[in-house]
Amino acid sequence: MTLMAEPQAFTPETISRPDPRLLRYYVVVSLLTGPLFPFVFLPLLFKYETLRYKFESSGVSMSWGILFRREIHLTYRRIQDIHLTRGLIQRWMGLATVGIQTASGSSGPEMSIEGILQAGALRDYLYAQMRGAKDDGSGTPVAAQSDGTAAIPTDDEALALLKEIRDSLNELNGKVQATP
Q: Distance between CA 24 and CA 82 in Å, rounded?
């Protein structure tokens, strides 16, 4: 009889470094360049060694670099879209890249989070944060569904709100017309 452990809840606050598989991915990609291996691998090695993530209640930060240090901090309210991409080698290694886009006007993502094994859970967490789901202090959204993703207001709730606004406007319009 084997007992299966319950899956642990995804907590992005514990993520500060990429998974070691990312370094193996960088080695494989660099080897595919042939004789240019050292020129491709060294910058990727330095990036891997200095890459840091920080997930806070206000936003997500990423920093890397030795000679030229680069830091990006995005608040959740600035996030416009989130893309999850997995190349052939990334799928083979269980990795993915989570691209975060803002309304900055650039064609590429503002931030690309690499080396995260639970990329789908991270994407769902970021979507919940950008949609304004509140945190109850335990790391899970208050309005969460059973699978851990943030609950989205139903069409009925939106329709009820719109009807309330309509009725208020009609009432206000009736008072304005009744006044001579």
A: 25
Whole domain around residue 58: which residue ranges?
12-152
**pTM over the 0.90 mark:** no
Give the domain CATH number at 144. 2.30.29
Phi and psi (nearest 5°) for 37?
-45, -55
- The candidate with the shortest Cα–Cα distance to 99, out of 86, 110, 87, is 110
Q: Give the number of other Cβ atoms within 10 Å of residue 108's Cβ.
A: 8
Q: How many helices (H) and strands (E) does the chain have?
A: 5, 6
Count of structural domains, the chain: 1
> What tens-digit pLDDT sequence spans the chain (180 residues)?
455 555 567 788 888 999 999 999 999 999 999 999 999 999 999 999 999 999 998 899 999 999 899 999 999 988 999 999 999 999 999 999 999 998 877 778 899 999 989 999 999 999 989 887 544 444 444 444 545 444 555 567 788 888 899 988 888 887 767 666
The answer to whether residue 174 is domain-embedded is no
